[in-house]
Specification:
By secondary structure, the chain is mainly α. It contains 6 helices and 2 strands.
Length: about 150
């Protein structure tokens, strides 16, 4: 039995992957978004110690497009918001692309999906962070998104 939420979860994960792809490739947002929507890239993850490729169920292309286009159009403002949510102990200028992508897409979703409950959005991105990290990053994603949600959705 398939999970009815899975296409949305996969869209969020693919949006994070798109940010990572853009950061590493130097391609424009429009190029990366197009390549993901045409399924040239994305749609799979590496899993386990042997890093086996696992193909994902199809993602909700509408949510993917809304998230990535919102970040494309508002990246600088979103980055400022995220920086303001960090404590002074964290080196904001040294965020690696996957971690930054999780935070950007999670923050963007507060705007893109205004009717979706805040805890659902935060939990989705905490779970995505958990798929990449098992340290402090997961707690930081939770704390930053929680702090930003209080500002954005006040």
């Amino acid at each position: 039995m398939t999970n009815p939420k899975q296409p949305f979860t996969n869209a969020r994960l693919m949006a994070v992957q798109a940010y990572y792809a853009k950061a590493l490739s130097g391609e424009s947002w429009d190029q990366v978004i197009s390549r993901f929507l045409m399924e040239e890239i994305g749609g799979s993850v590496l899993q386990g110690e042997k890093e086996e490729v696992v193909v994902l169920e199809p993602a909700d292309k509408s949510l993917f497009a809304h998230l990535t286009q919102y970040v494309r159009d508002n990246e600088k403002d979103l980055e400022k918001m995220i920086e303001s949510a960090f404590s002074e102990k964290i080196k904001k200028d040294k965020l690696e692309p996957t971690f930054k992508g999780v935070l950007l897409m999670g923050t963007a979703e507060f705007f893109v999906n205004p009717d979706l409950d805040t805890p659902i959005i935060i939990n989705e991105y905490v779970d995505i962070a958990r798929s990449f990290y098992n340290g402090a990053e997961v707690k930081i994603v939770n704390a930053v998104l929680d702090k930003l949600a209080q500002v954005v959705r006040a």
